Task: inverse folding
């Protein structure tokens, strides 16, 4: 969001606000939890770069363990940042149809193991044509629609047809299938287990049909943060596309074993009337996704009333405990949108700045 870079050793109370903090103890706890969960499983984590937007953070999870040694990326530009940052296994989870972007994937494929999601025969043929022109081979995975209702094939037969086409096209390496699911509200583990298995089985059904047609399936990438502990117990799933778990956000607090690591530090700049305080951070820094407002950490009885571009309105039950000049911490309502608003993470431990990480994939829309 700006060029602010505090010196190492700065106390949190001396930081200029607003700023995006990462609690290192919480972040390292989340990485180690994933490393332990996937340490002895055939299924591994493929961390989603759209949530962290930094190769530095991706490498920390890869070093901690439990991963495929690579990441997901939502966009080609995001994949470029990851490969340029030394991450050499990237799955682009969105369909890419523009020929200039396909050409960029071809260039990346000469430097790294790059795969892209497909759900359309014409798009697949275009990737083959461009790949031949660049003397490249591009890996593809077939996306299966489960609960999102947007991209992805709708019928098992479509998957077999696409896999058969991919297996015979020059410049194409058919790798497997993928899916991504959402779950509303704050489910308990039993609900996650039941719904996760139901959705993931839809992806496995396509995998089984493709293999029955005599085409090998190397990758079944099906899962996300809310099925991180479900997918490893389902035979056939090779990787989980988890993203939110690393930094966490308020709507995912039902995953109580993870800790919220990313928080925005802000300061009260006005208390214009009883029960109301104004903070120096707004939607330009926090993002605004539907009704997913942030929440305050450690200030009972104070809630976020509204967000404007440059400021936040806080409202209390009874007297406002926050005074002008006091700092407060906000937990994100949607973490990946928030991270995309900032140039860097300020990593703190014990109330002191320990390091600063740039966020080079912020704003990667192409």
Result:
């Amino acid at each position: 969001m700006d060029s602010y870079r505090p010196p190492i050793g700065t106390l949190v109370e001396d930081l200029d606000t607003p700023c995006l903090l990462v609690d290192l103890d919480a972040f390292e706890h989340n990485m180690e939890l994933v490393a332990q969960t996937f340490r002895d499983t055939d299924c591994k984590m493929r961390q989603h770069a759209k949530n962290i937007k930094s190769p530095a953070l991706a490498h920390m999870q890869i070093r901690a363990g439990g991963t495929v040694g690579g990441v997901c990326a939502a966009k080609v530009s995001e994949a470029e940042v990851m490969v340029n940052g030394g991450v050499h296994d990237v799955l682009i989870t969105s369909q890419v149809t523009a020929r200039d972007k396909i050409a960029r994937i071809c260039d990346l494929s000469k430097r790294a193991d790059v795969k892209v999601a497909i759900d359309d025969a014409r798009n697949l043929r275009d990737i083959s044509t461009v790949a031949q022109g660049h003397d490249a081979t591009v890996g593809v995975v077939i996306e299966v629609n489960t609960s999102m209702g947007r991209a992805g094939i709708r019928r098992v037969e479509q998957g077999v047809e696409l896999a058969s086409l991919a297996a015979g096209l020059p410049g194409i390496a058919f790798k497997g299938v993928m899916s991504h699911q959402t779950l509303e509200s704050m489910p308990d583990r039993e609900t996650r287990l039941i719904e996760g298995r139901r959705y993931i089985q839809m992806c496995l059904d396509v995998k089984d049909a493709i293999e029955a047609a005599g085409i090998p399936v190397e990758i079944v990438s099906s899962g996300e943060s809310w099925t991180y502990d479900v997918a490893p117990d389902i035979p056939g799933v090779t990787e989980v596309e988890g993203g939110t778990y690393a930094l966490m956000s308020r709507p995912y607090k039902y995953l109580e074993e993870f800790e919220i690591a990313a928080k925005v530090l802000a300061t009260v700049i006005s208390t214009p009337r009883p029960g109301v305080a104004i903070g120096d951070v707004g939607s330009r820094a926090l993002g605004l996704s539907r009704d997913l407002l942030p929440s305050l950490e450690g200030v009972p009885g104070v809630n976020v009333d509204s967000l404007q571009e440059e400021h936040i309105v806080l409202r209390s039950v009874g007297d406002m405990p926050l005074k002008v000049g006091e700092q407060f911490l906000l937990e994100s309502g949607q973490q990946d949108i928030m991270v995309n608003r900032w140039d860097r993470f300020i990593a703190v431990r014990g109330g002191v700045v320990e390091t600063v990480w740039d966020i080079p994939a912020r704003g990667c829309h192409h």
The mean pLDDT is 96. The longest helix spans residues 189-212.
